[in-house]
Amino acid sequence: MKIFKRALSAELMSSASAIFLIILGIVVAQRAGNIVRQVSKGILPNDAIGTILTFSLVQFMPMMLSLAIFLAVLLTLTRWHRDSEMVIWMNAGLSLRQWVAPILRFISPIVLIISLFSLVIMPWANEKADNYRAQLKKRDELSSISPGTFKESSNGDRIYFIESFDKLGYEVKNVFVQSRQHGKTGIITANTGSRFKANNGDNFLRMEHGRRYEITPNTLEVMTTEFERYDIRVEIKEAAPSTSTAQTRSTQSLVSGASPGDHAELHWRLAIPISTIVMVLLAIPLSFVDPRAGRSLNIMFAILIFIIYNNMLSIFQAWITQGKISILIGLWPVHLIFILLGWYLYHRRKHLKPLIPDWFKRRAKRA
Q1: d(Cα 257, Cα 106) in Å, to the nearest integer?
Q2: DSSP state, 84?
Q3: How far is CA 83 from CA 37, 78, 89, 318, in A?
Q4: How far apart are alpha carbons 252 and 354 in whole angstroms?
Q5: If you ran DSSP here, which 8-state letter would residue 145 be given?
Q6: Model confidence band, residue 352 (pLDDT cutoffs 50, 70, 90)
Q7: What is the annotated signal peptide range for this record (predicted)?
Q8: Residue 361 in 3-state DSSP?
Q9: What is the pLDDT of residues 70-109, one digit of tens each?
Q10: Tell me, what DSSP letter sits at residue 244?
Q11: How far apart are CA 119 and CA 271, in angstroms?
Q12: b/e map 165-200, b = 16+ CB within 10 Å
């Protein structure tokens, strides 16, 4: 028995670690690509990539951990079935029920971590991310400029180009500014420049050793002025104050909340660790491999159940928010449906019946 538990725990640990790293890499690549696209469009400054990516990973961490341990249990037991190791352990006297305890013991610390993220860390990260985005919207126009790219001001009357910044972002080199004032177009170029704040709190871009060209539209009139120093007032964006949402509120405040949205968010946070336990228990009978049905059919069926489970949770959460479902009922019908599905699969597996009925296989082949 000790050999069985040790072998199972070791393989589950290695599988879960590898799968989590793969999922983490996929999420990082997807989120980083999305953030970089926003930076290239000027929506976000380039120095905000790391911070926003970190907040995104914290927000997705419960779902990544849940999917990782579900796939780890499923793939590990599937390999044992495929390589006939499961037959050896069952012939040694191990029943299907005896697999539940060591698997639950293995996932218990991970479920606790998922619960901590879902109930405490994730809402904190959502609040910090919203506050950080609100602070980014209040930054001046120069803060969102990427070196070597053109950037239009928020009101559309200026275009900036700065070749490079120093490490602190206060000294700039090779500055180009185009502006429109009083029906005329002004172009300013300078070799160097710097940012500074006046006594009244206004932000300025001070350019040194440059030229200013003033062009009158539809004419050949161009006025050129050389200067030693030229100051441009930089506008600060006016951003609406960030409002608190159910996703950013603490779990303790959601318990005492009165709105359906608060209760829907509370049910969702509790559903993440609960659904993790249910799906891991479902993975035990789903891992059975029927040689006549193909090696990957059970994995496809398990992933389909995982997707349906999470989609149903999202639908019921939306119905709670809309008031279509009582807050006392919450998401529990979804959990009950899949608990009953797990009992059905255990029953068929205990009596050595295929998990997928023959009539479904025949219909799938005809389709």
Answers
A1: 35
A2: T
A3: 46, 9, 12, 44
A4: 45
A5: P
A6: low
A7: none
A8: helix
A9: 999 988 888 876 766 666 656 555 666 677 788 888 899 9
A10: P
A11: 10
A12: beeeeeebebbbbbbeeeeeebbbbbeebebeeeee
Average pLDDT of the residues of the chain: 79
- The predicted-structure confidence for 117-128, as pLDDT tens digits, reads as follows 999 999 998 888
Tokens of 108: 């218990």
Q: What angle do CA 256, 259, 263 make, to 5 degrees?
A: 65
Q: What string of DSSP letters covers 316-360?
A: HHHHHHTTSS-TTTTTHHHHHHHHHHHHHHHHHHHTT--SS-HHH
CB atoms within 10 A of CB 343: 12
Q: What is the dihedral of CA 284, 98, 72, 338, to 10 degrees?
A: 40
Which amino acid is present at 258?
A
Calpha distance 346→95 (Å, rounded): 11
Nearest to 162 by CA among 142, 143, 151, 147: 147
- 203 and 233 in contact (C-beta within 8 Å)? yes
Do 241 and 68 meet the contact criterion of CB atoms below 8 Å apart?
A: no
Q: Is 211 helix (H, G, I), strand (E, B) or coil?
A: strand
pLDDT tens for each residue of 133-170: 777 766 655 665 666 666 766 666 777 777 776 655 56
What DSSP line would sit under 79-114, residue for residue? HHHHTTHHHHHHHTT--GGGGHHHHHHHHHHHHHHH
Three-state DSSP at 7 gives helix
For the chain, the C-alpha Rg in angstroms (whole number) is: 30
Count of other CB atoms within 10 angstroms of residue 227: 13
Instruction: Identify the three-state secondary structure at position 263.
Output: helix
Q: Residue 184 corresponds to which tokens in the numbers above?
A: 């005329």
Q: Which residue has the tokens 């914290």?
A: 58
Q: Which long-range contacts (CB under 8 A, 24 or more apart) does 227-230 make?
A: 230/188, 230/190, 230/206
Residues 6+ apart with CB under 8 A from 25: none
CA-to-CA dists, residue 348 to 69, 96, 206, angstroms:
24, 11, 77
Bridge partners of residue 231, in order along the sequence? 206
- pLDDT (0 to 100) of residue 3: 66
Reported as a single tens digit per residue, the pLDDT across 268-286 is 999 999 999 999 988 888 8
Neighbouring C-alpha atoms within 13 Å toward the C-beta of 367:
6
